[in-house]
Design goal:
single chain, 3 helices
């Protein structure tokens, strides 16, 4: 089941969409560090280590700050997203490379049994 919405306003804070807890929470260009609305999501992922959180961010600096909310392993998972927007976004207030979905990181990374 795919469910969209703002987690702290329109969705159950326990992420129960009628089928139990989710397998994964995804946030594109999320800005976890900048928006208070993501706090409940981070707390949920901290309490439920079996739920993977995959997030992207515009630039590496923001990605480092956001990934640090998930601890050392999440911070180490920060990589440039191979599926990012191919053209840099012009940002005149800073001199950092910036791409839509440019950097990705994972909370509660899991090994797949194949």
């Amino acid at each position: 089941m795919l469910e969209s919405g703002t987690y702290n306003e329109t969705l159950d804070p326990n992420f129960d969409c009628g089928t139990g807890q989710p397998d994964m929470v995804i946030g594109l260009n999320a800005g976890l560090f900048a928006y208070e609305s993501w706090r409940s999501v981070i707390e949920y992922l901290d309490a439920h280590s079996g739920v993977v959180g995959a997030f992207t961010d515009y630039n590496e600096h923001s990605g480092v700050n956001c990934a640090s909310l998930g601890g050392g392993k999440a911070r180490e998972s920060l990589v440039m997203n191979p599926f990012r927007q191919p053209h840099a976004m012009p940002v005149y207030s800073m001199n950092l490379p910036q791409f839509s979905n440019g950097f990705m990181y994972v909370f509660n990374e899991q090994e797949l049994d194949l």
